[in-house]
Write a structure and sequence with these properties.
mainly beta, Immunoglobulin-like, 5-stranded mixed β-sheet
Length: 282
């Protein structure tokens, strides 16, 4: 199982993708066309998720809205063999591998007051929603009970129609290449993982007046105390040859795009191997 405090590297699966124009209500709205996803609006608090607990199978727009006081993210995992979120929690605290637990990416980290939307295809089944972000002690929020169940019902119908990205992020050990114009406003990002390891994306806006040294120190223990950055979204993780899309809003300023997944060889986060890039938003 995956943890951002770099304890165990997990397999991160691939989510299918879809076009979306999420509505602003707090329920899951059924879609009648394969090109429009069902909205899954998830509100993050400290330390719980508030969302619909059932959604029709097929195209979805998973929108994570952070109303807490800490950074939060939303990992999606499928639970097979009749297992439940309670079973997952017991496996976590016991550090036991679980063949019935498959991580499938999800909306990346966002700071309080911000949101990010990921586009996905979910097959019928039982899923868990998990916050892997660590607190000031290095303990992931899931260990404080920040997880919830999502039941996907019915049958998947129609082909996934991906949104049109305007910014492309291509990852491989240990690089992130960017293509597109980083301007203020809303953007759709496409992330491609060329491997060979699993990779995620975290986008951080460096706050005015903060230095590289302050950012580096905070990344050693990325809690919200005196954070020199704000997290504006990304992807929790995708496997080799996978890709996914997410939508996020950018303000003018300097940004750091990085991978925080632990390395398969030494357990250090990939950004410590140089897997990060800086961009300026105008």
């Amino acid at each position: 199982m995956r943890c951002l405090s770099y304890c165990t590297l997990a397999f991160l699966g691939v989510l299918g993708c879809a076009a979306a124009s999420p509505s602003s209500n707090g329920t899951a709205d059924a879609s009648t066309a394969s090109t429009k996803p069902t909205l899954v609006r998830v509100v993050a608090h400290d330390f719980a998720f508030d969302s619909a607990h059932s959604v029709p199978a097929g195209l979805v727009a998973i929108r994570l809205v952070n109303q807490g006081h800490a950074i939060h993210m939303l990992g999606i995992a499928r639970l097979d063999s009749g297992k439940t979120v309670a079973d997952f929690y017991q496996a976590m605290i016991g550090h036991k591998p679980a063949s019935w637990f498959s991580e499938l990416g999800g909306p990346g980290a966002v700071s309080p007051g911000d949101s990010v939307t990921q586009y996905a295809v979910l097959e019928p089944g039982t899923y868990s929603m998990i916050c892997w972000w660590p607190d000031s002690t290095g303990k992931e929020h899931v260990m404080s009970g920040m997880m919830s169940t999502l039941t996907v019902t019915g049958q998947t119908a129609g082909a996934a129609v991906e949104p049109t990205p305007d910014i492309y992020l291509r990852e491989r050990d240990y690089q992130i290449a960017t293509t597109g114009a980083f301007t203020a406003g809303r953007h759709v990002f496409r992330v491609d993982n060329d491997g060979p390891q699993d990779h995620d994306v975290t986008i951080l806006r460096v706050l005015p007046g903060k230095t590289d040294a302050q950012v580096d120190k905070w990344l050693e223990k990325p809690d919200m105390r005196d954070a020199p950055v704000e997290a504006v979204g990304g992807i929790v993780g995708i496997a080799r040859w996978g890709h996914s899309e997410f939508a996020a809003d950018l303000k003018p300023g300097n940004y750091l795009i990085l991978c925080m997944i632990p390395d398969a060889k030494d357990g250090k986060p990939h950004f410590m191997h140089g897997m990060s890039t800086k961009v300026t938003v105008t």
